[in-house]
């Protein structure tokens, strides 16, 4: 054997070991590639399920859940959504178990339930073994099988947990680290889809509300035109007819001195008709647009309106201002605040049954500077929950109109009320 030459057996052994390592590395690479392809296929399938057609949120969740179960090969799952206001469960969709079972599981939350960790962390986790009191243990997976574990996957959008995707199975090993990574991606994808669906529903609701408000505004315009026409015909038209009769009588007297003579009483009646006619025209013009609002500003206009309101309805109003005497705001802000207060006081008369009303106008000097209007009554109050959740029908359009007016000038309007506790309307508008 030549010096420096190796043992043929050792050379063959080294080559075999190298081939074995290469084969193992290739298998690892192939498994990783297959896993990556599977993840991409799963994400693509979910994307297709949540973008297929014009579906509502519930239908989208049902379709996406079925795709997740097909991708993971698990027998059962359920999706629950959380309310944006108080975090309670508002929507439950399930597959592989009854809707009642899914709803019961969604309502159940033990104090030490591990599911809470996913809500806090925003990351998926596997619950195994199941909590002794967990209702998931009693679910029927078919063929006499019961869950021994389940995965909880938060539906996350922009850092907020909007709901949970839950998957139940009887093989804990199915939820390995790679599977949790895939489920986390699906959870984020579904979270964005839920947020988009909610935004779309809110947009449609707002469009429908604006259409209702526009229709109501057009109807109100026509009603106001009819009222003005009726006032002109019945009050001012009759008054002008009476004036015409008196003028014809005076004309006859001028042509025939021996004819009719107007007595002092008749002259006084004539003057009263003219005065009443002028008052009617002035009142009609004031209702359409108070000139004092344009000439003197918001505070004098509201003082006059409050005085007229008190005289007409005999309702006590405490009107206070802070920092606004002699101050003029922009025309848009003054008009918005005047109409909001006007609508609030109209609601007090029509719905509240109040005995006392307070009205406060105040400027806030702290930055950012703003003007605040507060209308508070001691009336019957009402449940404001539907208003806050956007569940408004035609009976809420007046309040919606107030909120729209505030938003148009960059402000915000808040309504606080409860049955038998009165109502407070709070509006704040920036003064930049």
Walk me through the structure.
By secondary structure, the chain is α+β, with helices and mostly antiparallel strands. The chain has helices spanning 8-50, 57-72, 99-107, 115-121, 177-255, 264-288, 291-295, 298-313, 331-352, 385-389, 397-408, and strands at residues 76-82, 89-95, 125-127, 149-157, 160-169, 316-322, 356-364, 370-377, 412-417, 423-430. The strands form two sheets. Strands 2-1-5-4-3 form a five-stranded antiparallel β-sheet. It has a five-stranded mixed β-sheet with strand order 6-7-8-10-9. Helix 5 packs antiparallel against helix 6. The longest helix is centred in the middle third of the chain and has 79 residues, at 177-255.
């Amino acid at each position: 054997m030549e010096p420096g030459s190796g043992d043929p057996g050792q050379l063959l052994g080294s080559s075999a070991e190298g081939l074995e390592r290469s084969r193992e590395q290739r298998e690892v690479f192939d498994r990783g590639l297959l896993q990556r392809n599977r993840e991409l296929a799963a994400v693509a399938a979910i994307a297709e399920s949540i973008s297929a057609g014009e579906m509502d949120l519930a239908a989208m969740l049902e379709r996406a859940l079925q795709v997740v179960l097909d991708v993971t090969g698990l027998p059962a799952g359920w999706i629950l959504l959380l309310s944006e206001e108080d975090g309670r469960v508002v929507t439950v969709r399930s597959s592989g178990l009854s809707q009642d079972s899914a709803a019961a599981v969604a309502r159940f939350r033990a104090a030490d339930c591990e599911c809470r960790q996913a809500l806090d962390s925003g990351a998926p986790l596997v619950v195994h073994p199941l909590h002794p009191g967990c209702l998931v243990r009693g679910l029927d997976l078919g063929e006499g099988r019961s869950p021994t574990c389940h995965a909880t996957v938060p539906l996350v959008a922009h850092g907020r947990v909007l709901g949970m995707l839950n998957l139940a199975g009887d093989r804990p090993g199915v939820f390995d680290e790679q599977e949790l990574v895939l489920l986390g991606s699906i959870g984020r994808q579904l979270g964005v889809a839920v947020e988009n669906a909610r935004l779309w529903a809110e947009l449609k609701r707002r469009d429908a509300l604006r259409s209702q408000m526009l229709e109501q505004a057009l109807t109100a315009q026509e009603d106001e035109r009819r009222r003005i026409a009726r006032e002109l015909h019945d009050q001012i038209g009759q008054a002008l007819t009476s004036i015409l009769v008196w003028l014809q009588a005076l004309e006859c007297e001028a042509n025939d001195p021996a004819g009719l003579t107007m007595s002092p009483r008749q002259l006084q009646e004539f003057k009263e008709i003219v005065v009443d006619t002028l008052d009617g025209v002035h009142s009609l013009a004031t209702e359409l647009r108070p000139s004092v609002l344009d000439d003197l500003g918001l505070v004098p206009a509201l003082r006059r309106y409050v005085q007229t309101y008190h005289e007409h309805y005999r309702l006590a109003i405490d009107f206070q201002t802070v920092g606004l005497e002699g101050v003029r705001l922009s025309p848009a802000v003054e008009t918005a605040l005047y109409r909001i207060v006007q609508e609030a006081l109209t609601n007090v008369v029509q719905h509240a049954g109040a005995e006392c009303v307070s009205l406060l106008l105040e400027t806030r000097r702290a930055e950012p500077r703003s003007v605040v209007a507060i209308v508070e009554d001691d009336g019957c109050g009402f449940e404001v929950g539907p208003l806050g959740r956007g569940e408004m029908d035609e009976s809420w359009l007046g309040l919606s109109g107030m909120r729209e007016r505030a938003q148009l000038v960059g402000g915000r309007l808040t309504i606080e009320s409860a049955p038998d506790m009165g109502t407070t309307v709070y509006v704040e508008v920036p003064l930049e």
